[in-house]
Amino acid sequence: MKLSEIADVLNSYLIGNDFEVKGFSIDSRTIKDGELFIAVKGERFDGEDFVEDALNKGAVGCIVSNNFNRDVKQIIKVNDTLFALLKLAKFYRENYLKNTKIIGIGGASGKTTTKEMLYKLFSNFYKTYKSPKSFNNHIGVPLSILNTPKNTEFLILEIGTNQKGEVEFLTTISRPNYAIITNIGPEHIGFFGSIEEIAKEEFSMLKYVKIGFLRREDYENYKHLIENRNIITFDINEYKFEFLDIGVRLFVNSDFIDFLNYGWLENAVGVLKVAQFFGLENAYNYLKNFKSESMRMEIIKSEKFEIINDAYNSNPLSLKALLYSIKPNKRNVFIIGDMLELGEFSEFYHREIANLILNLGHDRIILVGKLVKYTYEELKDKLECFYFDDKQNAIEFLKLYLVPGDRVILKASRSMKFEEFLESLSIL
Questions:
Q1: Within 13 Å, how many C-alpha atoms sit on residue 332's CB side?
Q2: CATH architecture of the domain with range 3-81
Q3: Mean pLDDT of 30-41
Q4: Model confidence over 195-235: pLDDT tens digits?
Q5: For residue 358, what is the enclosing H or E element?
């Protein structure tokens, strides 16, 4: 697209010279030559403060608000830059990606892992693009669409939510042809009020697609909420699997695939069902040696410890999957932080997870945060368990507590920033 065409789509005009746009960005720190910078205003920043920086780094133009009054060329002025981003994405999908098949991915957990698996698989058969990192909100989804090459045959697109109506809104922008809902669970239940409301939100994508892929359990529990009759279900019980020291082994066609996380196994079963629908032969071979994005079952070996960093995020489903994924062992030390955005259900889920810890036989638990105090209250007299309300106190304790050879497992919600433990553990 040229800058002039973009200006026309936005009912605006270009101030400056016309150039071909090679990509779209909202981050001046990572802007590349030939990209268009969209100056979106966020909670902690205003993109218009970085317009000159973006141009100096090679941006061919910037979309700014009508209030922008600095003497800068190469700009397109609009009423609202976020609305412009969304409008451009919708236009691009309808005009430049009309032959591209999009697989939308929703669900409480495992969206990014499922996206990575589908991409690893489909890229062996088709020209495939995927949304980067966890770009699944009202900014990430349109950016992913706009940066998809025009000759793409399949786009693998995450669609997330933390408020009612977000999935359907993003679906109307992206218009996926197919959808896979990884699971239904209490992620963001603090915003939705009940798991049934979460199911309604996730299933709103199904109204717009040809085929939807769902866990059989979720389909049976919530089929009264589903408007689309073209549903294909997948079920982990269709396969034989066994737990390993770390992870789980899935048996397929007299062969096997090892996954580091039980949740990945469930994601893989869904991906294999999608592959079967599209007739992709020997799909399981492409899932061997699978690794997800960073901070998802990331194994780090320091001089003294083995560290499993699964701290990208946490919710009841993903924490349960992690606890199932690690066979009980005296070497294991779980450092578990708060699961956020559970609202009035926070106490219930933090107490509930204690029962699973006990039932599975894990016995060295470090709890860090405010909400995990509920977990501690359930565990304190039943196993070796310690509680700290902040990371620094926990780090000081770990200096004395850990011994060489320990395996340290990190899990917490994203804003807990448990990656800060990594630097401390590497030097303990």
A1: 23
A2: 3-Layer(aba) Sandwich (3.40)
A3: 97
A4: 999 999 999 999 999 999 999 999 999 999 998 789 999 99
A5: helix 346-360
Could you name the CATH architecture of 298-427? Answer: Alpha-Beta Complex (3.90)
Distance CA 171, CA 90 (A): 10
H or E segment at 119? helix 111-122
User: Can you read off the two tokens belonging to residue 37?
Assistant: 């910078």
Q: What is the pTM of this model?
A: 0.95
Q: Given phi > 0 = left and psi -120 to 50 = alpha, else beta, which region is 215?
A: beta
The CA distance from 213 to 222, in Å, is 14
Q: Which residues of 293-321 are buried (b: 16+ CB within 10 A; e: fewer)?
A: eebbbbeeeeebbbbbbbbbbbbbbbbbb
Q: What is the pLDDT of residues 224-246, one digit of tens each?
A: 999 878 999 999 999 999 999 99
Rounded CA separation 78/64 (Å): 6
- Is the domain covering 96-287 a CATH 1.10.760.10 domain? no
Closest CA to 346 of 312, 322, 369, 379: 369
* Domain boundaries along the sequence of the chain: 3-81, 96-287, 298-427
Q: What counts of helices (H) and strands (E) characterise the chain?
A: 15, 20
Output the six-digit token pair for 94: 């309808």
Q: Which helix (H) or strand (E) holds 322?
A: helix 316-325
Digit-coded pLDDT (tens) for 301-355: 988 999 999 999 999 999 999 999 999 998 999 999 999 999 999 999 999 999 9
